[in-house]
Amino acid sequence: MGVTFDDLVQEAAGASVDGWDFSWLDGRATEERPSWGYARLLGERMAAARAALDIQTGGGEVLAGLAKLPPVTVATESWPPNLALAAARLRPRGARVVADDEEPRLPFRSATFDLVTSRHPVRTWWQEIARVLRPGGTYFSQQVGPRSVFEVTEFFLGPQDGSARDPGKAGAAAEAAGLEVVDLRSERLRMEFRDVGAMIYFLRKVIWIVPGFSVERHRDRLRDMHELIEAEGPFVAHSSRFLIEARRPDGQVA
């Protein structure tokens, strides 16, 4: 007898979802990565920076994986379990981890950083980013694009409006804040979920894909998905990502 629906549900519902490490999904779900290689490009920029700020750092996994951090490195995070993980990873590297509620105003003086970064921010406060950047400084970010993983969202919730998070709107907002957009590109990337436990774990961790998700509330649709995967193979979705790099002009007064 194979693994049952109830076995998969019980296992995934009890797994820890702290931090931003997805290794629990190894062999059970896959996602293509953007061709630009965010971690590599981030590492190059961090190695050349003097003072850097990483906003919404999660558990600090991305920064901790870089070979070199600037002499002054600060990371912000709002969720207490992630704060503890980020501090454990980054403080030994000389970085400072700051609790921040992810709402303006950023708790830093104007023109403090020559590099500000964020990977998959919930929201980008462009005016605040422009304020804390030094003249000539750069904001570098990989963000979630429009209709990301909407095959999953609409499987559970029905048709949705997916027009938000448009790369063009992000570029316009950056320019409205006085920044110059020097790079803007986007891609859609294939995802596969090979069992319903992988989907449960993913939705418990990435909570904005199906707002209000719980095993109890969505058990009927989870069972439908389990039967669909058993009959047809992996559940396929597509994530949407865009890369944006924007520069504060030299000589600009805050």
From TrEMBL:
A single GO molecular function term of this UniProt record: S-adenosylmethionine-dependent methyltransferase activity
InterPro entries: 23S_rRNA_MeTrnsfrase_RlmA, Methyltransf_11, SAM-dependent_MTases_sf
Keyword Secreted: no
Single GO biological process annotation from the record: methylation
Coiled coil ranges: none
Domain Methyltransferase type: 53-140
Domain of life: Bacteria
UniProt entry keywords in alphabetical sequence: Methyltransferase, Transferase
Name this protein carries in UniProt: Methyltransferase domain-containing protein
Organism: Nonomuraea jiangxiensis
